[in-house]
Amino acid sequence: MPIINETIISGVNAKNATATSKDILQGKTAVAGKELITGSMPDKTGQTVNGTFYSGTTGYITGKIAQEGHYATNSKLKIPVSNLTAGNIKKGINIGGVVGTLEPIPSNLSLFAEYFSPANNDSEIVNFSNGSLAIPNTYSDRGGVCLVNGITTTVKSLVNGSNVRQLVGGGTKAMIRGNYGAFISTDSGSIWKSPVGVNITSSTSAAFIRFNGSKFYVCIGLNYTTPHYVSNTACTSFSVVSIPSNDYEVGSSTDGIWYAYNHSLGGIYSSSDLINWTKKYTLTSNVTNFISLYKLGSIVCATFNGRSRSGSNNTSATYISYDNGLTFSDSLSIGISSSYTHHNHIFTHKNNIFVYSFHSSKLPQTVYKVANGTKTIINLPTVNSKYPNIIGSNGTSLILAYNNGVIRTMSV
Predict the structure, then answer these.
(1) Does the residue 303 lie in any domain?
(2) Residue 191 counted as domain residue
(3) Predicted model pTM
(4) pLDDT tens, 311-335?
(5) Are 165 and 183 contacting, i.e. CB atoms less than 8 angstroms apart?
(6) Which of 163-167, 304-308, 310-314 has the lowest mean pLDDT?
(7) 361: containing domain
């Protein structure tokens, strides 16, 4: 480095200069003492430099600058902040430029056990008399039921595969059917066994189950073809029952009576033994596959999930009578399509009947309260932008089961 004779510049003695190359911008030169020095300070003007997180408090964070250099007003410091993602921020809230997408979990929402994903087909939430619930589970290879008692949950892996088709029951009894088997419980879901006297396996082309409040009914075969089976009152075994005609589509109920829709004769018929039938209600349905008949006070609801009578489209319908079944003057349906499987579900809650509808590509967004000659629409809440898969009641609140493994209780 060249040596410069001591000089006086504008009254300043150069020998008093203390700057070193690190204090001068890279590529710039200056005189310090008797030397001409070239700067080595990196110029970070206009650059974005990575820093490190130091601390955080309300309203701001503190970071450390990891690189020495000269910083101007257009320089930027990038400080990593753990967990600063949209999914961790309340929906619509902007934190540091990140807009949240997380919908807060309400206080009346409880997490389910691991490996839970509720079914949303012909299954229902079963209320046991001990206060616990059984909800159909289709999670991966753990298909079966999730038992809920308060906030305690237990997964019962029953069906070898996720295709749980039906769960029906009540009191202390419940029965589940999947494409790979069936199981029955008579002790509020603690122990599940294969049904005795009826065989539902992966080779079964089609089957469905019904419950009338005390006994289970099983039909194996398409379009209500034989054979038909009925359990004993204890639900420990099944025996073959000879229904007079395949025109009788048997549905579930809660009063110990069997009800069936008859195609050729028209109307809904009742029976105590599945053999002798008496016409109960006059009804012409445009939909096949009678599912259930619910009665509460003067209200009678008959639900069908299947196809239109022409057989060309999928549809569902619940026919409603407000005068003890004399006339079915009202109905609920989600329309008709050829590509989606449609479902209507019905349950009771606080001495009212509730109905909801959905199809295989659209989860239920509303539920209807049927009372006093009218239908009242109740909008359902979402959890992380998802609507519930299946809805029921624990006698106190509505039960909403979501596919992301949570259950919400909703006061209505």
Answers:
(1) yes
(2) yes
(3) 0.73
(4) 667 788 899 999 999 999 998 887 6
(5) no
(6) 310-314
(7) 109-410
